Amino acid sequence: MNEKKAWWKEAVIYQIYPRSFADSNGDGIGDIPGITAHLPYLKELGVDVIWLSPVYKSPNDDNGYDISDYRDIMDEFGTMADYDVMLAEAHKLGLKIVMDLVVNHTSDEHAWFIESRKSKDNPYRDYYIWKDGNDGKAPNNWQSCFSGSAWQYDEVAGQYYLHCFTKKQADLNWENPKVRDEVYDMMTFWCEKGIDGFRMDVISMISKDQAFPDGEISDGLYGDMSPYVTNGPRIHEFLQEMNKRVLSKYDIMTVGETPNVTVEDAKKYANDEGTELNMVFQFEHTDAASKETGVIGKWGYTHPRLSTIRAILNKWQVGLEGSAWGSLYWDNHDQPRVVSRFGNDAPQWRVLSAKMLGTLLHMMKGTPYIYQGEELGMTNMHFSSIDDCNDVEEINAYRQYVTEHQMISSEEMLKCFDAIARDNARTPMQWDDTAQAGFTTGTPWFPVNPNYKEINAKAAQADPDSVFHYYQKLIRLRHENPVIVYGKFQPLFLESETVYAYERILDGKTLTVACNWTDQPQPCPVFDGITAPDLISNYETHLAGQLQPYEARAVLV
Ligand code: GLC
Ligand code: CA
User: Fold this and answer.
1) Which atom of ligand 1 is nearest to the CA of 102?
2) CATH 2.60.40.1180 corresponds to the domain 488-556
3) pLDDT tens, position by position, 192-233
4) Distance from Cα 281 to the centre of ligand 1, integer Å
5) Do 122 and 115 touch, CB atoms closer than 8 A?
6) Model-level pTM greater than 0.85?
7) Most CB within 10 Å of its CB: which of 179, 239, 418, 522?
């Protein structure tokens, strides 16, 4: 096997959602000095890279994914001087920093947008996507990702502008070469500061079908824009240009967030020639979970079948082999907590199932991502009313489907939120068992999950059997065993509805992995005849021919 070697293929990445990570000054909002103070914790965990969700200046309509100044830091998070200290301290510890690059859209409070709306001949007009109405209505029927029309009429401008997300997130017009120059200059500014990479927000959406056709209506209200705004006609051209102009000049890593990406698309985005990005995030396994009995739009609440998830993950493992690199994730700031979603967060099973899920993912091929608190087995929150919710996606969906159109009941919607709302991931990091989980000395911007007395970093660090120590070992094993990084993936035991098993093969070595996805013992023959000790397992002892509830086991021969 002559797979090209790269540091970002061998790395484990940890995502920080700064608002909820650690508050240093008691205002209840996580901040950059809070991150700096906890770098030794991440060093102890053993990760290589930190991806920071956006820390730029922002009016926070979508918690920083609406940027009003790409070259400055959000007031609540600190100053550029704080940022520079954090970057230097991270580098001293050997930790790399990856920035979130949000360039599909800017805030409507960005200076470019403020200019753009002023008049049709303003030099910034074409920085955004302006259209005349259609018979007094929006230019087409597209629904924004966050409910309602994707078009907003602007009185001053006398036209509609496109916003694929909230109306305070205006889409940039990538057809305009000046926009692309601005983005590349801004990226260069951060690269020159010495950052180590970019996670590119909804980067598959920057090239739009210039015909802007109506989309298919599925929920009876609006049309689906996704075929016309994802993986669009000029996407690869734009990324290749970005690569030539910026990325190729630095030793950095890139990961694209790419809604609607297929394996075939990913082979282009993340091709091994390195002409675009290093890897992308695909959404099939996370979307499948709610799609199986979707309630409305993206909303649903079923526990997915193992065979569904396995078919998707295996397709990606096998499909990218030899031609493109992949990413591995269960959780991020847009997903519910994996132990609640795919595992079992009941006290009896929480730790075991969190370790099982960690094993399943971290023994696969690709670069693993850990979302803050995942290494503690943090769980979903419970939302008993819409007033408990903060996320603009939830609030808008509730307004559209429950309040305005009465398409589902409030109870039904809240049940969906409990299962998959983004707010599940955004409760403050649970550091210890003191008030507010040690996240803040003040009142947190969003409530702490009440289970923090049991589930917190301090307790986990003190307990050798904790999820934390297990993740620490998973990370160490990847660093020590090239087969985990570069080995070829081989699916096993595909007839099982309850066990996920596979092999990784490299240079005469075989790593065999099997995970029981259920709370019952399950037959599993894959270790029969293997006498080697475990590389890792969440059980001390094993039973022949079967896996115990949520048992995970990996053996290297
Ligand atoms: C991405 C981000 C999400 C954000 C959206 C709009 O999906 O991960 O948090 O709301 O883009 O920027
Ligand atoms: Ca603060």
Assistant:
1) 12
2) yes
3) 999 999 999 999 999 999 999 999 998 889 999 999 999 999
4) 13
5) yes
6) yes
7) 239
